[in-house]
# Entry
Amino acid sequence: MTTLDRSSPIPLYFQLKQVLLDKIQQAEWQTGDLIPSEQELQEAYGLSRTTVRQTLADMVNEGWLHRQRGRGTFVTRPKFAHDPVNRLSTTEYLRQQGITPGWQVLEKGWQLPLEEVAEKLKISPDEEVYRIHRLRLANEEPIGFHYAYVTPAVVSHINEAALTEGGSLRYLRNAPHMLNCRVTRTLEASAAEEAEVNLLHVPAGAPVLQIERLITAEDGSPIELMWASYRGDRFKYQFSL
# Structure
């Protein structure tokens, strides 16, 4: 037990939060562990029920803990983070955490585009695009999947070997069109549907993070349109401004 400093200007709920975070970050509490009940925390730290509840609510909202009705509060697996501002790719982040990143190519080939794809890539609906469907893996566990649509002018520059290694754009890095390119991302929270249920092994309605990425060349011509879905319980987007 760590004694809280009641003479400190730091609120007690925040002090308790730091104590509990230390237990998780120092591996005293492991992923999946049941933490002490609200009553036990009240007694151990001499706090009110309201203070303890506020602390636990914050930690649940931030993804450190999760509640199971009738069972208690448990330590959550840490989420994988992607910070595009610091240019740390998901692959690099996973490796820093001691996690083996990977890809599984599910399908690739030419096909006629959906109307929305044709519009965003500025091509005719009668002109085929090259579609690549991949699973993103962490220690061989699926955490997300990508549908990437590549314009015909760029397909000859695809590095096929890079489809199963490195970051999500490694397969296009050698394309001259990528020099001084512009990347626009759109993020949206959604609920798991059939594709997420089947590929990511989550229940229907589970939270997922959907990402749209459009890459355009220096002259404004589209290069790639990517749609991705990630497990909301395993992935987060982080911005450092």
In short: The radius of gyration is 22 Å. Residues 34 and 72 are 7 Å apart (CA to CA). The longest strand covers residues 101-111. The helical segments are 12-25, 38-45, 49-61, 90-96, 115-121, 152-155, 194-200.
